[in-house]
């Protein structure tokens, strides 16, 4: 599908359909997230100032994030290449698209749009530990950017935490990852009792492959965002092991 992918957000160019898409997706996800979403995510949505009626203004959102954790938001027309993406993270910048899917595409999209990038990823960057983990992953990735095995390892960790992680709150796994928060299919899948919920364990994550084209068949459950942040030295240790193994 041919679509306009702006290099910067021009708010006046959003159409009534864009507002309808944002409103529909926001309300539909919130119906579930009020019950099954992590309290941390829900609080963060309030703190960052998102609501159903307004498509977020990227500049204002960036200013709010900067005041909270020193992170900023930049607009990219589409998925940014891996090296640029990790460089952005290492500099406490999160790249987002500013275009929205159409009403006809509510449930299926070939690439991330603004609803995934903004609604899914930005709120939790208001949390210090989460933001520190993201920066740490970016810095580790840049250090090992020319070692594909290391980037693949980091990709798995990012996938199972930032995109598809669950967060334990009062003993119950709650929706947390951007890929679940922004997707009705993953939301319903993740609350099913028949899907495996593994405890946060780096070695298992590193040894587990994932698919991007199907609903997840397992999720990892974190104890807290502090647990994520504190795992950075162990992730670095795992990267050294990979390098040693590759160079044997
Ligand atoms: Fe994402």
Word description of this protein:
The structure is a single chain. By secondary structure, the protein is an alpha/beta fold. It has one domain: Phenylalanine Hydroxylase (Orthogonal Bundle), CATH 1.10.800.10. It is 52% helix and 10% strand. The protein is built from 12 helices and 6 strands. The protein has a 4-stranded mixed β-sheet with strand order 4-3-6-5. Strands 1-2 form a two-stranded parallel ribbon. Helix 4 (82-90) links the parallel strand 1 and strand 2. The termini are far apart. The mean pLDDT is 95. Bound molecules: fe (ii) ion.
In short:
With 248 residues, this protein is α/β, with parallel strands linked by helices. Helices cover 52% and strands 10% of the residues.
Poorly predicted sequence stretches spanning 5 or more consecutive residues:
none
How far apart the termini lie comes to: 46 Å
Find the structural class using helix and strand composition.
Answer: alpha/beta
- What is the helix/strand order? HHHEHEHHHEEHHEHEHH
| Strand order across the largest sheet | 4-3-6-5
Return the domain count. 1
Helix coverage percent of residues? 40-55%
| CATH topological fold name | Phenylalanine Hydroxylase
- The second-level CATH architecture is Orthogonal Bundle
Question: How many β-strand stretches?
Answer: 6
Largest sheet: 4 strands, mixed
**CATH class annotation:** Mainly Alpha
Strand content: 5-15%
Mean pLDDT: 95
Cα radius of gyration in angstroms: 18 Å
CATH superfamily: Aromatic amino acid hydroxylase
C-alpha geometry: globular
Unique ligands: fe (ii) ion
Tally of contiguous helical segments? 12
């Amino acid at each position: 599908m041919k679509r306009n992918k702006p290099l910067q957000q021009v708010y006046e160019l959003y159409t009534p359909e864009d507002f309808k898409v944002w409103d529909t997706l926001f309300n539909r996800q919130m119906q579930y997230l009020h019950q099954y979403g992590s309290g941390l995510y829900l609080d963060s949505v309030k703190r960052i100032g998102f609501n159903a009626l307004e498509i977020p203004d990227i500049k204002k959102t960036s200013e709010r994030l900067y005041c909270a954790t020193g992170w900023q938001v930049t607009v990219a027309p589409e998925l940014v290449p891996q090296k640029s993406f990790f460089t952005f993270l290492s500099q406490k910048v999160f790249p987002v698209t500013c275009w929205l899917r159409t009403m006809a595409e509510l449930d299926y999209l070939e690439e991330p749009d603004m609803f995934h990038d903004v609604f899914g990823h930005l709120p939790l960057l208001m949390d210090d530990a989460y933001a520190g983990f993201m920066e740490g992953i970016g810095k580790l990735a840049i250090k090992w950017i020319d070692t594909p095995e290391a980037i693949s390892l980091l990709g798995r960790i990012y996938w199972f935490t930032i995109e598809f992680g669950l967060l334990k709150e009062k003993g119950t796994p709650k929706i947390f990852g951007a890929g679940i928060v922004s997707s009705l299919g993953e939301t319903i899948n993740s609350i099913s009792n028949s899907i495996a919920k593994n405890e946060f364990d780096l070695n298992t994550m590193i040894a587990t492959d994932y698919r991007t084209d199907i609903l997840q068949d397992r999720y990892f459950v974190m104890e807290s965002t502090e647990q994520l942040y504190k795992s950075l030295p162990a992730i670095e240790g795992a990267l050294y092991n990979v390098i040693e193994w590759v160079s044997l």
